[in-house]
Amino acid sequence: MIKEDLVAERIAIDSYREMIRYFAPFDPTTRKMLEEIEATEEEHADDLADLLQNLPKDLRN
Ligand SMILES: [Fe+2]
Questions:
Q1: What is the spatial distance between Cα 56 and Cα 28, in angstroms, rounded to a whole number?
Q2: Taking the model in full, what pTM does it have?
Q3: Is the pLDDT of residue 61 over 90?
Q4: pLDDT exceeds cutoff 80 at 15
Q5: Residue 58 falls within a domain, yes or no?
């Protein structure tokens, strides 16, 4: 379950990065908002990765 959540966070990060690239040339306000959201998603992914790493090996999959 945690692994699936981590994959979902990474997909969200990729989606935000794509949106940031799209808006960057003409809408700096939206770009900045998306960058802040993306940073939060990165924190979520880091938290889940840490959680996974601290689980006993037999519970990681
Ligand atoms: Fe998230």
A1: 44
A2: 0.89
A3: no
A4: yes
A5: no
